[in-house]
Amino acid sequence: MNHPALHTPEAPRDLVGIGIGPFNLSLAALAHPLTGLDTVFYEQRPRFHWHPGLLIDGSRLQVPFLADLVTLADPASHWSFLNYLKTRDRLFPFYFAERFHIQRAEYDAYCRWVSENLPAVRCGHHVDAVRWNPELRLFEVDFTQLDADGEAEAVGRAHTRNVVLGIGTAPHVPAPLKPLADAPGVPVVHAADYLDHRDTLLAAGHITVVGSGQSGAEVFLDLLRHRRAGAERLHWIGRTEAFAPMEYSKLGLEHFTPDYMRYFHALAEPVRDRLVTGQWQLHKGVDTDTLAAIHDELYRRTLDGGWPDTVLTPGVRVRTAGRVAGSRIELHLEHLQQGTRTRHTTDAVVLATGYRERPVTPLLTGLDPYLRRDGGERLRIDEQFRLDLDPAITATGCHVYVQNAERHTHGVGAPDLGLAAWRSATILNSVTGTRSYPLPARTAFTTFGLERRRPQIPPSRQVEALTP
Predict the structure, then answer these.
(1) Exposed / middle / buried, residue 414 (Cβ in 10 Å: 0-12, 13-18, 19+)
(2) Claim: this prediction has a pTM higher than 0.70
(3) Which of 23, 65, 238, 282 is most buried, judged by most C-beta within 10 A?
(4) Model confidence at 454: pLDDT above 70
(5) What is the spatial distance between Cα 238 and Cα 191, in angstroms, rounded to a whole number?
(6) CA–CA dist 367, 165 (Å, integer)
(7) Pairing of the two strands 348-351 and 207-210
């Protein structure tokens, strides 16, 4: 193997990003025009893809197109969604389409355009470890360069003053269903891989969708549209008490502002933990258009006087699961309100059970002695998205930042695309020590919490107050 010497201690990077999802891609895009800032971003995959298994025809983002990678921090950026449309000669079609919420496939293509044109992005690079070198007073980032087949081709090391972890989330499979999901040939798939298995799923006699959030609704609707009326044979179950709409009122959306994130961060740890579990409808509900489309499709199938062969039951959890009669799947269900239990037999299962933050600690094993943790043994993260590290590191001006790994400290806005540009700008301002991106002091009409405010002196009284 080759051992390329990249950015030696004599010429360290200013910032190394690990992982290229939308959040670190936002950071790379906003860092690009900052002259003098030396950055690189490593991604294991050969090219950018954003939830490819859920790019169902017609599915849309739940945030407006202004929540692209850069606009809410720098509307004039070359890397805006509108400029992407301009490079494709599609501004006028988009203008006449009057779509505030774009399709997911279009967002995926936009992000890929950015990633393929940013010189700091290095796909096909797997980061192996991050360490602190106390003699050099720098972080060491070891990586393996992969060939087109994903095999190791070369190894390297970068030295850097700052690291930004943006390794994203991974599909979550509930423990009772994990043995079936891991077994080869068993039609139990996570929604993240839905499109890869859709033909197999549609060929099954009976299909069950588990999960009552947006992904579950979109998968159920897609399956419903592809099944013959009167022979749908679809089940949709979820733990929430209802197939509930996402909170999308104007003031409700202010929970996804920097103002609320700062308020949340300042709360006591037990209060934050209680709030996170109780705010599921702010980000785990279903958008009203999808719920309406499901109802419209079900209603259309009643026009001949019958009812569709579908069952939609919220408030249900899967206790255990197994195989019966050779190829069929049996789910043991419990209704959380009734306290009743039953067995449910099906031929295929789609797990729309969401995603969990990938743990960053395995990557930071070399930093473990320097990491500070909270009462729940989670990493402590300050208001500028920096890990709380031993002063032996931070006194040198070096830091490790995280993106979308701070829900326990920053609240429900952590995974929200609408805060991507603002968080990236906050990190860059911290890294550069300047206001590279001026950010608004206030972003919400709501005042979260009781604040002491200085009394405002009316202009007519100001002169009087200054007169001796």
Answers:
(1) buried
(2) yes
(3) 23
(4) no
(5) 14
(6) 13
(7) parallel
